[in-house]
Amino acid sequence: MGLLTGDMLGPLAVALAVFLLLLDLMQRRGCWAARYPPGPTPLPLLGNLLQMDFQNTLSYFDQLRHRFGNVFSLQLAWTPVVVLNGLDAVREALVCHSEDTADRPPMPIYEHLGFGPHSQGVILARYGREWREQRRFSLSMLRNLGLGKKSLEQWVAEEASCLCEAFADHAGRPFSPRALVDKAVSNVISSLTFGRRFEYDDPRFLKLLDRLQAGVEEDQGFLHEFLNSIPVLLRIPGLASKVFSAQKAFMALTDELIQECRMTWDPTQPPRDLTDGFLEEMEKAKGSPESSFNDENLRMVISDLFAAGMVSTSTTLTWALLLMILHPDVQRRVQQEIDEVIGRVQRPEMGDQTRMPFTMAVVHEVQRFGDIVPLGLPHMTSRDTEVQGFLIPKGTRIITNLSSVLKDEKIWKKPFRFYPEHFLDAQGRFVKQEAFMPFSAGRRVCLGEPLARMELFLFFTCLLQRFSFSVPAGQPRPSDHGVFSFLVAPAPYQLCAVPR
Ligand code: HEM
Ligand SMILES: *[C@@H]1O[C@H](CO)[C@@H](O)[C@H](O)[C@H]1NC(C)=O
User: Fold this and answer.
1) pLDDT tens digits along 88-140
2) Most Cβ neighbours (<10 Å): which of 84, 115, 135, 242?
3) Is 442 within 8 Å of 94 (Cβ atoms)?
4) Quick check: pTM over 0.90?
5) How far apart are CA 281 and CA 285, in angstroms?
6) What distance in Å separates the CA atoms of residue 459 and residue 107, rounded to the nearest whole number?
7) Is the Cβ atom of 134 under 6 angstroms away from ligand 1?
8) What domains appear along the chain, each with residue ranges and CATH number?
9) How many Å lie between the centroid of ligand 1 and the Cα of residue 122?
10) What are the φ and ψ backbone dihedral angles of 417, each rounded to 5 degrees?
11) By the 8 A CB rule, do 394 and 381 touch?
């Protein structure tokens, strides 16, 4: 008992402090490498965590970029982070070294949702067999479902009609389009994951969308980063379910929907949706305990696709409508092109795109300007990698600043303006741009890109075919500055939709 009293305490504290500092140095030895990217001086244990202003991350990073250049480092507790800016650095890391940078950092924080070695979903899966299996599965299911009887394009077009009907109910009166756009986009992804759509006033649907939105918001901020950096804290009983209650609720609703699919699944029929396809793979994988086709992963994969497929596309469409009311001249030119190529009666089809260069340029410019995933998703190096002459050791978290590519001043004529001509040549033909990277690039490039492209084009043209949009009379012009809340979305705004 006398061991820890009086004289002993002082030396013991010193020894403990020395031990912790040594441990800290060991954990961070990567940063001592020659040619490691420069960055702000980290404190022991916490690194730069306390210096980060989580309310205003973007402007803090802006300062660092000015001080240290396009490639700089940060230390979040024991996690070394390297931030890449500009087309050259991002392309070199994601495209030239695509294999070395395809890993994701471990996210212990998601274990409370069921994330585990064989149930990693797709988005956050570590680079390895489980990720490869699920990425390949998702891509091939998306392809197959598009080619099925009721083709994907038709699904989207029908949902676009429902959305137009819902807009028509508000015609003439100012309203906020966000909630309706959310529903339409969710129904597209829901048709793929669960083979069904929901009525726009279905209470269960409303709850699902509400919990998804709230869940996305739980994924940001200091507490999230702090818990992920120091995951032992998650062992505190009840903490995870308190801090992540919306995500838990969203998963519970996903479970219900999966269960309903299961009850009507007929293994002798071709899969109606991704859930059917997954169940089929689970049957094939029976007896191989290593397979990533298992019950736990079913809900991870399906909820990943639902969340990724819904929030990003809907946010982009909300940007598109905002930019149309702010730039009525651009809106008119799109409508003119629609009238010439499609007319007022025919439904828009993907095939029309080749004859609609201006509309194509506008949709691309909406994505470039909207810049909704400014920092991409985190990557991690799986071996020592060189980028722009800097050495990035294995196990370093990489932040690809997609915003710095989409707004690279060396490339775009008017990086901070909405200017569809960025994607048009002198003859008015559509031109691709290498720095157009809203879906990222390399092995982890967004797997929903073709689906998103289809939704953006069809929803956008259907809406502009039917309505003219404007800032409601007497209301101030809404701002085109995005608000960062996991994704960058326009601040809530209202518009008027007048049938054409
Ligand atoms: C305008 C709409 C969209 C945008 C801007 C977007 C953007 C992105 C970005 C930036 C990433 C990160 C890539 C990386 O790690 O480097 C990503 C990943 C992903 N996206 Fe999308 N996305 C969109 C729509 C969709 C849709 C509709 C789906 C649904 C099928 C989807 C599914 C995914 C998945 C599963 C991943 C993870 C891929 C992986 O880790 O291998 N996305 N997306
Ligand atoms: C990303 O790029 C944008 C635009 O160039 C810049 O404002 C922002 O500070 C950058 N963020 C980071 C993390 O470097």
Assistant:
1) 999 999 999 999 999 999 888 888 888 999 999 999 999 999 999 999 999 99
2) 84
3) yes
4) yes
5) 6
6) 35
7) no
8) 30-499 (1.10.630.10)
9) 10
10) -115, 155
11) yes
